[in-house]
Amino acid sequence: MRTGHAADIIIGLAFAALGAGIIIIASGFRTIAGMVVGSGLFPAMTGTAMIVFGGLMAIGAARAARSSMPASAAGAREPLFDRYAIAIVSALALLTVVMPSAGFLAGGFVFSVFAIRLGGGRWTGAILFSAIATAGIYLIFTQGLRVPLPRGPF
Q: Would you state the pLDDT for residue 79?
């Protein structure tokens, strides 16, 4: 699946801008008594990573666009949004609506399996990876960082 260099530049810059917004919002979080770390630490780390990797994506796409522009493809345009991107964004939107009632474990597992299968992964790998990744992330947040996640019916 390839969406083109222009889409990669736009997505990379948007990702970096979203990261900057997260850092700005996280800087206003107040410290909660009894917490090992401040409540804004993880969002600030995430925002910083988003800026770095979004910038790298945009720079890499700009370099690739500059160095690999064949004359025959100069006029060809690829769609900015393809079916894969629309499906993933739609699934994420649905996940944000469903997760409070379904819970992190069920919602994260189903979303992860869907994304892997949509990307061409096999059922066994998708189920195995999704179970391990979802459980691991859940334990990191709830036990390590002491951040509550939606429990759902389980």
A: 67
Separation between Cα atoms, residue 64 and residue 59, nearest integer Å? 9
Measured distance CA(81)–CA(111) in Å, rounded: 20
Tokens 């700005």 identify what position?
A: 24
Residue 81: left (phi > 0), alpha (psi -120 to 50), or beta?
Answer: beta
What is the spatial distance between Cα 124 and Cα 101, in angstroms, rounded to a whole number?
27
- Segment 88-106, tens digit of pLDDT: 889 989 998 998 899 999 9
What is the rounded CA–CA span in Å between residue 18 and residue 43?
11
- Listed by start position, the domains of the chain span 1-80, 81-145
In this structure, what DSSP letter does residue 75 have? S
Residue 129: per-residue pLDDT: 95
94 token code pair: 């649905």
Which alpha helices (DSSP H) does the chain contain, by range? 5-26, 41-67, 83-102, 104-118, 123-139
Please state the pTM of the whole predicted model: 0.56
Q: Which residues are CB-contacts of 82 (< 8 A; sequence separation ≥ 6)?
A: 1, 3
